[in-house]
Amino acid sequence: MQLKKLSVKNLGCFDEEVYSIDFTGETLIAGPNNSGKSMFLSGVNIIRYLIVGGFGWSTDLYNLVNFDAAVHAHENNRTINIVMTLFEGSNQFIYDASFDKEKFGLQVNGKEYSRTAENIRLHNDLMRRIWFFRPNRSPVPYSSTVQPTAGTLQPLRPDGSNVINYLLERWTDRDKGWDIVESWLRKIDPDMTELKTPIRGNLTSLETMFGNIPVNVSLQGSGFQSAAAIIAAVVFSPENSTIIIEEPEVFLHPNSQEIIVDMINDAVNNQKKQVIFSTHSCNILLPFYRDIGINGRKREAQHIRADLDRFSMWTFKKTSGKVLIDHYPLKTKTFQHFKEDFKYIWG
Fold it and tell me: Which residues pair with 207 in a beta bridge?
């Protein structure tokens, strides 16, 4: 499955024009704070929730209180429209949602969506293969009551708050991805020798081993905790799934941000995943320039480079209150042009 396109109209900061992005296997969205990146991506989650949960305003998935808060300029005579296109093999599905103050409608491939048993099974499965992660990720608690992590849309919550139980299930089953998660976390902290989720009574925790000394992850740095949730999501999500990550750089040291870039590149290039992510960090942008831009010093062989054929980049900015979305041709940019284009990031 691959998400191919998203368009929004009259949603939040987006007015009556149609605003669109065409996604590739790896799509990077860059822009300053409050330029519309999160609001745009919330369109995916609104469609997901319409399919799986019925219509409603879910703060788990997007920070929209109600229609009056979500509609552009709070003008409740407008109609919000969201169109999302995805492919499953050779099959194309176009989800077209329109709603106003009184009612909503959802069409799939031009026909009113009917909640038959066949449609529920097919479309719920597709929506559950899109995973979304917020920038405001929760700290890992010291311990958690053992409980299943099955959720309405994704087993690992958007804020990563249930990461202990989620990893416990992978650890107990000795999922084949466990060693991969350990290897990426070891790059974040080379002193780590093992990751485990021991059970004590009805409580479980997330611990790393440093030699033969266990250390609870809740007592470690915020960056390591955030990386644990993001790495778990990317590695353990199903094959042919789409992972949307807002600001993967949160809490991370610049060197660790480049490790996350390598992990995302590996997921797209080698693990049959689609990754869409937004950022306003120069330490996320710079590795992609070095991989794809012209006249740049290419990254060393130990790094996993972005594949130009799978990669695309889009920029968001606001001018006089209006959002502008543009495709950014990174492969045609010299470093001088690149740095000038993102001077709001470098300062």
Answer: 196, 216
